Each structure stands twice: as C-alpha cells, then as structure tokens.
Amino acid sequence: MDTTARNFLRRWLITCVILCALVAGFNVAVNPYMILNVPRIKGFNARKPAIETHAHLMKAYDVSRAAPNAVLLGTSTVGLGLDALDPIWPAEYRPVYNLSIRGGGPYTSYRYLQHVVSQRHLGLVVMGLDFQFFLNFPDPLVVGPEFELRLGVTPDGAINTAQKWQYVRDLLRETLSLDGLGDSVTTVLGNLSGESTDVAAGNWVNSEYFRFAAREGGRWVAFWDRRMKELYRGKQLNPAALDSVRAILELCRSQGSKVILFMSPMHAHELEAIRVTGSWPTFEAWKRALVSLAAEARVPLWDFTGYDTYSTERIPMDGGTMHWFRDSSHYTPALGSRIARQLVGAEDLGFGALLTPQNLDKQLAAIREQQRQYRIATLADHGSVYALH
User: Fold this and answer.
1) Which residue among 26, 38, 75, 338 is least crowded, i.e. fewest CB within 10 A of its CB?
2) Sheet containing strand 70-73, strands side by side
3) Are 62 and 34 in contact (CB under 8 A)?
4) Residue 228 reports pLDDT greater than 80
5) Domain ranges, residue 75
6) Structural domain contains residue 121
7) What is the mean pLDDT of residues 148-169?
8) How far apart are CA 249 and CA 260, in angstroms?
9) Is residue 138 part of a domain?
10) CB-based burial of residue 94 (10 Å sphere; 0-12 exposed, 13-18 middle, 19+ buried)?
11) Alpha helices in 31-73 (DSSP H)
C-alpha cells in the first residue's frame, strides 16, 4: 500500500474516531434515556421526551437513583393521573416514585416491585388496578427479554447476573447508536420548545397523547367505541393477572411494606361499554376476586368505578377538554389528587368505596342502580352525555 493510501486511511480513521467521540459526548451530555446520572439543565436536557417510547428502559434506572420509600404501581392511568410529588403523601413515605408503565399489566408491576425491594425497603406500595389488564386477550402483552434483563433479580428472586451486561448494552444504545443520537436531538429540540413530554419522579408530564386528546376534544369517542367493543366483548378473567397481584401482596407482606389497592375510575362511557358488550358479570367477578385477595392479605381495596359526579362528566363532542377525564380510561391529575386524598385518609370526599367481603354485594347493587339511573338520564337528554349503542 503506497503512502498516499495509508495517509488517507489514517485520516479517515481519525475522522471516524473524532465523530464517534463527538456523538458519544453529545449523547452523554443530553442523556436522553436517563441511564447516567447527568445533571438536568433547563433549556437543554431537563425534559425527557423519550419517556414516550422508552419508559421500560428509563424507569428501571431512574427508580434506583430516586431511592424511594414508596412506589405507585399500575398502567398509564396511574402514570398520567397520580402525582408522586403530591404533598398529600405522608412524610414518612417520601420520596414517592411513580413506577407505573403504559401498557404494563400486573406482572410488569410485580417485576418492577421485585427490582426495587432487591435494593431497598419500601414503606408503602400503592397499586392502581385496571379491569382491561385482567382479561384474557388472544395476544397478551408480552414483556420483552430486555425488560427482564434490566431488573436486579430474576422472577424467582435470585440475583440477576445478566443485569450488568444489559446495562452496558443500554449505555452503548444511548451513546453510540443512531437511535440514541436521534432521541438526543429530539430531547434538545423539545427542551428548546418547552412543550415536550417529561418525566419527574416517574410521573408522565405533558404527554403527547394528552396533548393530542386536548386538541381532539370529544372526537376520541368514535375511536374509543371501536376499541372498547374489541377490548371487552367475549373476554374472561385471566388467572395469571390475579396471580401477579397475589405475588405482589405476598412480597409486600414478606418485606413489611404497607399496601393500598384501588380500582381506577373510568368514565361512565366506558362502564357502558362493559355493559353493552355483555361483560358486566365479568366486571363484577373481577371485583369479587380482588376483594378476596385483599381480604386474605388484610390490605385495603378501594373501588372508584361507580357512576358518580366525576365519571358522568359531560363529554364535549364539539371540542374542548373535560376536567376529570382525558378520555374514557384516563383520569386527570385533578381527579388523581382526590384519589390520593381518599387513599391516605387525608380527607373524606365521599368518593369511592372501601370494599370488604361484608359490603361487596351491597356496593355492587348500588352501582347497578346508579347505572340504571344513568341510562334513564341519558335517554331523557341525548345532548348531555354520549350514549353508547
């Protein structure tokens, strides 16, 4: 090889190394996936829009740094509705971390809980329960292998020896991949605009989904009808989901952690979808199964799924937003704050019901009566609420 060719290759190699170093340095400084403990600088990398697509990755590392004394478990309803930074949480349980995952069922919550308690003791575990994640879907949500590899322990509680190698892979993904570079650029642009999604103590802030819902107003109803009919019709309870809740309760008992369970509120529109698809008996069977688990573990179980002032809020079909709900499944932080107050006993708002084996039948009958009255009101005034057919 002549001298000219060697010099060209040497310069090309040096250029590639410099470019890789610049990309890696930029990605490390931006820290889009929060793998590293890099300071968050306002206007540069403080907001983390990658939470929209990388929540499993981000929260596995972020919760370890947060060192919480309490965690909030559940799906996107908890992630977008409950506030881990709400001062209503008792001082002895702070800091609180919102460890909920969009699309994550009870098994995901169980594995994240194992991950946290393998590192520290938790004083309080609050878990939101969503009916749809207890149903036997033909193609259930499968948690990927990378999710499992990031956690401190395996499902049987043994130390996860593969965790450090997954950390290296995740670090390389953040620093030297095109995806990492793209998310770093998106992070910086989102910070410059000041409108991107963010995560704070595990809370989802200014989610793109909610910004879309706000723009659409009540026009989500048609889409939601199709989704709910597919979601609920012909489904039965999934025993594995109930087993995961049982495992969470057993793990908390073994750790001496206080547990509070609650059934997430739904807009009356979704409750009607459950009724018209013939799934109301399954809905009540779900409540019976949870009451049994809670009674066995001696933990409180709150039910916020009635036809109350909040769930019957009028849907603005001509645009605009609701105060208590974003759509039929997701409640707003305003309602989440009321849920939190009820859960910790800070204030009796007359919202929800504390279920026990002794009062369950009475509560189920009361909701059926609320449902009947709601249907009468709906038929009497078609413009006040949207009637699902």
Assistant:
1) 38
2) 96-98, 70-73, 124-129, 258-263, 301-303, 353-354
3) yes
4) no
5) 69-144+151-158+201-380
6) yes
7) 93
8) 10
9) yes
10) middle
11) 51-66
